[in-house]
Amino acid sequence: MNLKSLLTRPRRKVNDEQLSCTEPLLINNVVEALADHHLSVSWGDRLLTLDKTAGFKDEPGFARAFAAIRGSHQYDQYNGPDSIAWRLNTLVWAGHCALRAGGEFVECGTFKGDMAWVMLQMLGTERIPRFWLFDSFDGFSPHYSTTEDYPDNPGFLEFANKIYQQTGLYEYVRDRFAPYANVRVVRGFLPETLDIAMPGDVGFLHVDLNSPRAEIAVLERLFDRVVPGGVIVFDDYGWKMFRRQKEAEDVFMAARGYQILELPTGQGMVIKR
Q: The whole model's pTM is what?
């Protein structure tokens, strides 16, 4: 199959694991060839950038932290060399803003903890008063998530549950952050878990539940706790497959006088006034 036929054939609704091995290899070979014609090429997480500085990748601290988590999880079928580097850069930037604003750090949807771990390394563990890591470690809540949440890929829920219900996932994350006294790993479905473990003032809020109703329920409980200057990052906001989340979050934020900034990483961002 040549590149022209690959790019012009009808689009299929498939999960990453259903794509043939030929397609990612072909795309990656084309991207690699671009390096001969551009000053810089960054490819990963379905994001291709050309001739951008991407200076954060050259920072020794970031390079070490990113290398340590590289390969922990394959985030897309192409498995590009930069993986989620751009998303991590967004989170680290937001974390620096949060340190100036004050308040605790909260992540709703932790998975293996790679994003939070990189933030700890980059910001300095001693500078974060408390970092709350919430996750069910048992996939999606049946009370908040259905296949109708993903109209462009109704098979996503079953596909993702297989990943998020990995045996030993909670124990892995618990042990990974055990050396950090200021990190609290909380197991259970959101938003119910907030009834027993509620943060105080929040300077950084990372929402990554892949579920419209669950994310809105979390915002209803935590938005007012975010301090002025605090940052909210929505991991899935700009991804087409999760458009139901974008629609719900746009309504929630507009009602409070905010507009979410969509980023090319697929993330969305709000800075609290």
A: 0.92
